[in-house]
Amino acid sequence: MSEPSPSELGVHESALLLPWFVTDRLSPEERDRVRIHVESCALCREELAELTQQRDLLRSAYTEQAPPPRDLMPAILSKVKAAAMPTREPSQRRTRSTTDIVEEWFRNLLRPRWVPAFATVLIALQAGLLWWVSVHAPAQPASGPGGEVVERGIPPQGTRVIVVFNANTTADQIRTLLGNVHGRIIDGPRPDGRYMVLLPGGDPATLDQSMAVLRARSNVVELAERANP
Length: 229
Hints:
This protein has helices at 18-22, 28-40, 42-64, 72-84, 90-95, 98-109, 115-136, 171-180, 204-216; strands at residues 141-143, 149-151, 159-165, 184-187, 195-199, 221-226. The chain is α+β, with helices and mostly antiparallel strands and 229 residues long. The strands form two sheets. It has a four-stranded antiparallel sheet with strand order 4-5-3-6, with helices on one face. A hairpin with a 7-residue loop joins strand 4 (184-187) and strand 5. Helix 2 crosses helix 3 (42-64).
């Protein structure tokens, strides 16, 4: 469905150009067409008179209004810049010592908006340190009441296995074998030559497979048995 034309709405097409006719924005052909129509249309002449009056009033208002001073805009911009970027006197900047700078840095760090983030970082660092100690730091043996060896520290997760290596076994052979079963030495050697090896996980099938690998290397392992709980 097409939109109705201006003539169907009762609006003269030339009347639509009256605002541009008043402000002298039409081509010569368009001005002649509007002028001819206005001479024969009383309604359009009335509207043209109203538009002309409004134009004259606006021109008079702008003419009577005094222009702003030339230095007004630079003065406003200067004040805005000074308010947004406060500066300190050069003498004050020179008198600040290193201690004052460090103290101000810590004071800013401990402001309320930074405290939650700072506490979160500390907790994450502590958790990472505890994890590293539990994985990499060997348990420290100590003598118990009956002379037996007991362990201190965080108990590692996994299955403990007692292993005795052959006397002629090299360190490379031990590392290769432990790498095959993903195990690591957590204690030893004890006076009887035993090592405590930690195998990951507690799945019976995986543990039996790892024990079979250890015992199959008779040229490296003399004894491999599960430690008592």
